[in-house]
Amino acid sequence: HQPAFNAIVALLKRFKYNGGRHKDIAMLQQDICDFLNTEMSSFTWETEHKPTEKVNDRIDIFGKSNVSDLKVIIELDAHRADQVAKKFLSRSALMIDQNSIYLSICYPGTEKMPKPECQKYFEYCSTLSKTLAEGSGKEKLYAGIFLE
Hints:
With 148 residues, the chain is of the alpha/beta class. The chain has 4 helices and 5 strands, in the order ααβββαβαβ. The protein has a 5-stranded mixed sheet with strand order 1-2-3-4-5, sandwiched between helices.
């Protein structure tokens, strides 16, 4: 699933973030979902996906491959390390038995939300994804992306 991962990350890095329009996070979420549906039709993309009836957690943007069992979890947050970590932990647990790509997409926050701290947590999440994959028979890929 590495080629799909590389393609999705490259595609999302081309997404045009508009600070004015995208102050409305629901609009940002829908614009990214629409962008993915237009640019990557080998997946079906939706917003506010509920992975299980057991909990109320919803995935901001969820992608399901049309040709394999690969799932994509995309979470949107201001660049806050605690939010990145919290969502990564819960969504990874919910999707533990799936081949998955997890992407943290962070939009600009405040000065009290240091990007270097968030970058450090991107690296932690990547390490944990690799560890979760080891011996599980499932592929787990992770990337963090900053929107500018």
